[in-house]
Amino acid sequence: MSDTADSAHSTHFADLGLPSDLTENLASLGYHQMTPIQAQSLPHTLAGRDLLGQGKTGSGKTAAFGLAVLGRLKVERFRVQSLILCPTRELADQVAEELRRLARQMHNVKILTLCGGAPLGPQIHSLSHGAHIIVGTPGRVEQHLGKGTLSLKDLTMLVLDEADRMLDMGFQESLDAIIEATPPQRQTLLFSATFDDAVRPLAESRLRQPVTVSVESVH
Ligand code: ADP
Ligand code: MG
């Protein structure tokens, strides 16, 4: 069973109960009001709920999951707590860039990107120094798990961004292998532009009583 979030949520970031340094930084980025997908998802995701989010390009999904990731992060615990999977290196780089902007006022938050097409050596070296948040593509993340250079045993939040595209690109097996390496009690957020027969089994098997948010408008 899943709940559908209503639209009666506040659109003010200040009402989310996020640390004030995070909220003040949002204003400096020109983020004054939440977009609908942010307003409808953040109260639930910050409270620990799983989420199934559908919203077209430009609806602000990155900050929707990014603020949930940052708001629930325990900075003093230097372990990989969040993993964000994206279909392509370009998208992973964009997500990491947005996360770094959002986390600008949070001290010592370590975000690493792990994408295919980049040499393994420097990634292994970076991983040996630790990270709080990994942003990556499924193939490369799976490769690091297989080599033992990445552990997800302390993961508390998994984000599948553009899940439909990841499945279109043939990442089903990598996604399964990665998810099997995470603790079952993790929080899972799944975003997809479409919610068809390809995505539904993934959502139904991997999300627990998710809140469902679907927005059409951009702002
Ligand atoms: P999506 O992933 O849904 O396609 P993005 O997360 O890439 O969308 O966001 C689209 C654009 O909107 C980005 O330039 C981002 O910086 C901007 N944006 C996101 N949230 C807000 C907000 N609350 N206020 C103003 N701009 C925002
Ligand atoms: Mg996006």
Automatic annotation (TrEMBL):
All residue ranges annotated as the Helicase ATP-binding domain in the record: 42-213
Instruction: Tell me where on the tree of life, at the top rank, the source sits.
Output: Bacteria
The segment(s) forming the DEAD-box RNA helicase Q domain are: 11-39
- Name the residue ranges of motif: Q motif: 11-39
Q: Which family does it belong to?
A: Belongs to the DEAD box helicase family.
Q: What is this protein called?
A: ATP-dependent RNA helicase DbpA
This protein's species is Terasakiispira papahanaumokuakeensis
Q: Which residues of the full protein are shown?
A: 1 to 219 of 470
